[in-house]
User: Fold these one by one.
Assistant:
Number 1:
Amino acid sequence: MSFSSRDEIEILDAAIRASTGGTFIQLSDGITHYEIGGSEANAPVILIHGFSVPSFIYDPTFKFLSQAGLQILRYDLFGRGLSDRPPVRNNLDFFLRQLTELMEALRFTRKVHLVGLSMGGLIASAFAVRRSERIASLVLIDPSGAKALDDSWALGFARIPVLSEIVFGQLGERILVNGAAKDLYGPVLVARLQEQFRLQMRYRGFTRSILSTIRNGMLDAHLDIYRALGKLDLPTLLFWGRNDRTIPFEQSDLLRQAIPNIEFHIIEDCGHIPHYEKPNEVNPILLNFLRRS
């Protein structure tokens, strides 16, 4: 079904992209928006964002690691930010193909460090399982996939064809922007996060991509992937905000059971995005781990 939310008032085209000053590359499924920083002398660190909030969510991480001299790549998953919204199934293979082709297009020949937030943690883990020879280390930040996320009325509606198009077409901004605010524990950063989040909602195909991602299993349980990851001899770091309301802290137990040798850090008084909410606490741990790995 072809539709647009009432918030989607523009087509994401070359003129709009040119006005942003961003960097873009054509892949087989469409154009991907990305940014590279730091020094090419070091192995790349690739930052993969989550379900709906695009790559700006790594602003503090990108700046810190770039200034520390590491080579950093962040990009917008298809359907989000300034990347294309191709009308295809937004499943795990789709997102893994984007990551694979982006690495090839940028000629990354060395092993890479993958950092994945929420759904990005699932993508990073699946890539590591399939292509372990390409991975130097893995960092998971409140990753999804230990259990299915099915405890909200919005996710329930999203799985119902036609009805969900109607509901999200009219109320998509309220549902998704409020959902993004729920990722934070404290109120200080909420307004800034919501303002940046709304920008991507102007472009046609965003809501369709969000619904397709839900319907194609990206928020389902994928504990088998984490168990396979646990059998690899791969340095892995796990962060989790104690007060995560998006993916409950209790799910960290399942991850630690699946990946027995994982290095685990709890971030207190923090929600779903600890690297964004408490960068001064997370960044030194992250940098130390990457240098050791």
Number 2:
Amino acid sequence: MSDTSTLSTLLCDLDNTLIDRDAAFEAWLHSEPSLSATDRAELLCIDAGGHGSRAQLFAALRRKLQLSVTQVRKRFEEGILAHITVKAGAIALLRAFSGSKVVITNGTAQLQRAKLQAAGLGPFIDAVIVSEDLGQRKPHPALFQAALHAVSAQAVHALMIGDHPIHDIEGARRQGIRGVLLRTRWFDPPPGVRTISSLSEVQLP
């Protein structure tokens, strides 16, 4: 990416950006012996990279695993955490960037922070902004404003990296923050949006 000379703050999504949440979810599904290949394919489709309806996903998991809502949630969260892996290039990027680094993520505070620690990324991050803590979800301005405020940064000097064209990139753009979309199988890049296929493609000052 060009024009990084004034970049002082890196804002990053968590799921399918810094961590490979798709791989963790699929690995957990494979660890459940009662799920068939057809079951796993259906659940992956419902989940849609974590952007699908959580209510529909848990309802389907309840039917297939024959568990209560509480049991399904616990099994899901433990399964994800047990299979967390870091996205290629994530650690190298965070190590190389000398400015402030903030994670902005939708989800529950406890689980999202647990993912960050399970992936070993905690020491590289200066602040974590989770939607549950603010009562709003990306692309709401509150999350981006809180991220900038947490490290006393200005929007013009920040860059947002994420996998969702609306939640991450458009949300950041509305706050005057540059964005770059990390491509996944779930979204086609909108026209005019800068995209990368790996975090190793991010050019730092």
Number 3:
Amino acid sequence: MALVDETQLEDGRYRLSEATAGDFIQLLKPRVMSLVVFTGFVGLIAAPGVVNPFVAVTAILCIAVGAGASGALNMWYDADIDAVMTRTKTRPIPSGRVQPGEALVFGLVLSALSVMTLGVFVNWLAGALLAFTIFFYAVVYTMWLKRWTPQNIVIGGAAGAIPPVIGWAAATGAVSLESLVLFAIVFLWTPPHFWALALFKSGDYERAGIPMMPNVAGEASTRRQIFAYTLVVAAVGVLPWPLGYASPGYGLIAALLGLGFVWYAWKVLAMPDGDRDMKPAKALFGYSLLYLFAIFAAYLADSVLARIASAGGA
């Protein structure tokens, strides 16, 4: 006798998954993951001492898997709002390619696997920081802050800012002021980056009922806050140089990148009210991605060159 009859399949009580490997990869939010992995890698390499290659590879893989797990849990919980937003309605769950339960199990298994592997094979401080990051993003941000307060991105940005600290902890077994400066750069970068997106996607957030800053405080207030945060992150980006963590060369590059960020933010601030084109906001969003990658790349290069010079001098 068949375990499931045809009428049960037809009325939707049992559905066979149509998901492909690509759909599950999409659940991991690979574009977001790439930035997370890169900042984590910079924290790992910039940390003092020599890292065992096995430890380094394990740490980066665990950070990547943990970031992906966070993305899958986020998509599972946000499937209802993803379905009404133009930029997310084709994601695997709202499009029906992946069932919600599959995404939930996928995210939970990857979360446990990444945390336990990092704890056992690297160190438990790094493992604990990764566990906190996943919990903060999936529970505190996704389930609470995102739908409750226009400060969701400000507070929730802590989750995306922790990876360089995890990388540092993986290499040294500790957290230092230098790693916290890297955290601060990403943390302060997050509001202008996402609020620029929110400006030209405010209709999406309004339909979904998400209290993003432009929908709550208005576009003019959002533009002012974007500019204020940009001034701060541009200054903090230079901070590793006067603190003695980086060379004047890094300081110059960071200053130039920061000035570019401020320029784009100024163009957003100067936008006329009711501007439907939103070209300055779109340009700022694109530049902000370049800024974060470039400033961490500069910090990585500066750290590696300093280490080579130190080895040569010895």
Number 4:
Amino acid sequence: MRFLAVTDLHYTNLHDGANHLMHDLSLRKLREAIANGAAGCGCIVNLGDTAEGFDGCRPQAELLDEVCAALRDSGLAHHSIIGNHDTRMEKTAFYAHLEMPDRYYAFDCGGYRCLVLDACLNDENDPLPKSEIRWDDCRIDPGQIAWLCRELDKVPGQVVVFTHVPFMLERWETENPHLIRNRAALAEIFARSGKVRAVFSGHYHDGCFGVHGGVPYITFAAMGVGEENAYAVVDVTDDGVTVTGYGRQKSAQLP
């Protein structure tokens, strides 16, 4: 399985050079990533925080449509994930603009079953919040966990998991507000299944790599930070996971 990974475009017409928040460059960066990295990939995965909805800036819906057009123009299948800033718009509306089937879903690529999770909720009993959630208190709801278990049970081979909010940084023991709050229960399910080949996330803008319970956890660097681009071409095989990074995105080889 080979795919192009992009995340945290935070696309809008904001340009704050003093704080390295050059979100107005993100659409150009996305097109550059597609032009330079999409060849040979089976799909593009956009791991969330796609566009901002700041007051006084361009409408979030217009920005999402521009990103979706760039993804569609690649000629590849494209799969997006809800990020915490994306929840400024109602999730059901977000699906429509990014051509997603639902807030969590499955797809196939390169012989792997891919499971997309929605970790962008603060209240496990309210998966469809009416306003933007807090970025530092993200979790996955019980209904979604039940769906995940059913998917793992019925898939005969290995799966790859995608989520905006990460499960770990370099070490599992590290506590950080960027991490999924109920991550331990999910990680136990992953390890116990013996079927999760790797887990990919965004949200933590510097990016990082780690392994827990025999499962590689890869967090990609944010595209919308600074002038330099950040994206990756990822190869997943039975022998390992290879991340070929461009710009601010580091490369890595994981078991």
